[in-house]
C-alpha cells in the first residue's frame, strides 16, 4: 500500500504545480486529458478555452476588501449599460422617422452675353460667334436673406430641370429643349450654366421639379377642401381623415371597422360605407405629384451681364440638423465599442490572474496553518481525481491516508523530496 501511495504522490506532483498559476493549471488539465481510460479511444485534443468571467470569487472579499468596491462598480456599470442601450434604441427608432425642416431656397436666374455685335470692346478678342450663357443658381438663406453655411447644395434639392427656349428651331441645331435629371451619384453643385449660340433676346421657360424626401403630395381639390390643406404626406392625410371621421362620429357603432360616409365623403370616395383597411388605397387615388416650379426669364444680349432685380424664394424640405447630430452620435458610439471590448478583455485577464492568485494563496495558507490536515485532505482529493482519470483499473483504500503510521513509512522521504524539488525547481 505504501508503494501505491508514493506512486500517487509522485504522479500528482508531476501533473500539477499549484504554486505556479495558470501555466501549471493548464499543464494539469492537459495531463489529465492525456491519460487513457480502459477501453477509451485516444485522438481527442485539448482545446484551451478563453476566460470570459469578469466576476471576482465570493470568498476573496475576506482577504481583499477592495473586492466590494469592484462589485459596486460592476453594479453601476450594468445600470449604465442598460441606460445607454435604451437611449441608443430610442435614437435608432427616432432615425427611422423622417427628420426634415422647412428652409427657404432662393433661386437666382441671370445671363451673360459674349461676342455680341454691339459689344465693340470685345471685338479684338472675339471668336466671331455670338453666344450667351444662362445661369441658374440657388442657395439656402435665413430669414434675413443671408446664406446659411453647411447647407445642401442646389443640385441636391431638385430632382429634374427642363428648359424650353422660344426661338426659331431652323436657325439653331442644338434644339430648344434642355433637360437635366439628378444622377444617382456625383458631385453636387450650387448652380447650372447653359451656353448657346445667339445674338437676339430669347425667352426661356425653366421648369424645376424639387426633390421630395418627405414624400409630400398634392391633394385633389375635393379632399383638400375637406381637410383644409393642399399638400401633405400620405400619413398626414390619413390622420386628418381619421380626425374628421371621429369628430363627426362616422364610425359604425356596431361594426367598428367600418365608416358610414357622410355627404362629403360620399362625394370624394363615391361609396356609402368604407372599411378602415380600404382607406389607404382610397386616399392614394386623390394624391398627385407636386406641381413643378415655373420660372420665366428673358435672356438679354444687349448687356454683358444681365441680373434681374428679383429672385425666387421656395420652401423646401432639408434634413434636420438634429438628425445629422444623431447619426454622428451613433457612429461615435460604435467606434468606442472596440475600445470598451479591449478594456473588458483586460479586466477578464486580471480577474483570471487574481483567481489563480487566490488558489495559490489558499493552498499555501492551508499548508502553513494545518499541515497534517492539509496533507490528509489533499491526498484524499488527489486519490479521487486519480480514480476518476484511471477508472476502475486503479484504486486505493481511502482509509489508509487517515492513519498516522502511513506517513512513517520509507516512501514519505522520497515523496517529500520530489515535492520540494518541484516547488524549488
From TrEMBL:
Coiled coil: none annotated. InterPro entries: SWIB_domain, SWIB_MDM2_dom_sf, SWIB_MDM2_domain. Residues 30-58 are annotated as: Disordered. PROSITE patterns: SWIB_MDM2. Residues 212-289 form the DM2 domain. This is DM2 domain-containing protein. It comes from Basidiobolus meristosporus CBS 931.73. The lineage of its organism: Eukaryota, Fungi, Fungi incertae sedis, Zoopagomycota, Entomophthoromycotina.
Amino acid at each position: 500500500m505504501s508503494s501505491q501511495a508514493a506512486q500517487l504522490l509522485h504522479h500528482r506532483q508531476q501533473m500539477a504545480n499549484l504554486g505556479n498559476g495558470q501555466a501549471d493549471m493548464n499543464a494539469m488539465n492537459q495531463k489529465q486529458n492525456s491519460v487513457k481510460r480502459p477501453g477509451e479511444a485516444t485522438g481527442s485534443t485539448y482545446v484551451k478555452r478563453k476566460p470570459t468571467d469578469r466576476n471576482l470569487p465570493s470568498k476573496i472579499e475576506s482577504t481583499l476588501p477592495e473586492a466590494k468596491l469592484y462589485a459596486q462598480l460592476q453594479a453601476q456599470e450594468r445600470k449604465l449599460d442598460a441606460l445607454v442601450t435604451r437611449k441608443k434604441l430610442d435614437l435608432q427608432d427616432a432615425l427611422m422617422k423622417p427628420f426634415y425642416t422647412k428652409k427657404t431656397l432662393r433661386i437666382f436666374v441671370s445671363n451673360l452675353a459674349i461676342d455680341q455685335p454691339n459689344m465693340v470692346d470685345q471685338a479684338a478678342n472675339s471668336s466671331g460667334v455670338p453666344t450667351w450663357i444662362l445661369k441658374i443658381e440657388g442657395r439656402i438663406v435665413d430669414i434675413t436673406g443671408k446664406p446659411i453655411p453647411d447647407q445642401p447644395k442646389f443640385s441636391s434639392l431638385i430632382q429634374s430641370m427642363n428648359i424650353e427656349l422660344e426661338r426659331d428651331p431652323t436657325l439653331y441645331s442644338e434644339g430648344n429643349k434642355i433637360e437635366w435629371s439628378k444622377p444617382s451619384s456625383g458631385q453636387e453643385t450650387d448652380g447650372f450654366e447653359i451656353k448657346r449660340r445667339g445674338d437676339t433676346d430669347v425667352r426661356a421657360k425653366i421648369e424645376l421639379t424639387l426633390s421630395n424626401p418627405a414624400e409630400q403630395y398634392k391633394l385633389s381639390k375635393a379632399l383638400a377642401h375637406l381637410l383644409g390643406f393642399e399638400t401633405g404626406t400620405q400619413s398626414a392625410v390619413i390622420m386628418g381623415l381619421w380626425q374628421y371621421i371621429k369628430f363627426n362620429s362616422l364610425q359604425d357603432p356596431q361594426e367598428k371597422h367600418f365608416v358610414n360616409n357622410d355627404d362629403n365623403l360620399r362625394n370624394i370616395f363615391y361609396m356609402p360605407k368604407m372599411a378602415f383597411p380600404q382607406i389607404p388605397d382610397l386616399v392614394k387615388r386623390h394624391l398627385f405629384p407636386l406641381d413643378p416650379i415655373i420660372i420665366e426669364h428673358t435672356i438679354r444680349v444687349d448687356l454683358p451681364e444681365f441680373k434681374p432685380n428679383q429672385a425666387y424664394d421656395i420652401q423646401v424640405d432639408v434634413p434636420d440638423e438634429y438628425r445629422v447630430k444623431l447619426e454622428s452620435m451613433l457612429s461615435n458610439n460604435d467606434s468606442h465599442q472596440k475600445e470598451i471590448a479591449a478594456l473588458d478583455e483586460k479586466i477578464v485577464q486580471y480577474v483570471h490572474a487574481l483567481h489563480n492568485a487566490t488558489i495559490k494563496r489558499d493552498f499555501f495558507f492551508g499548508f502553513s496553518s494545518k499541515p497534517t490536515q492539509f496533507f490528509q485532505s489533499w491526498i484524499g482529493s488527489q486519490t479521487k481525481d486519480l480514480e476518476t482519470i484511471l477508472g476502475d483499473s486503479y484504486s486505493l483504500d481511502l482509509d489508509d491516508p487517515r492513519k498516522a503510521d502511513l506517513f512513517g513509512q520509507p516512501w514519505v522521504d522520497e515523496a517529500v523530496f520530489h515535492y520540494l524539488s518541484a516547488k524549488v525547481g
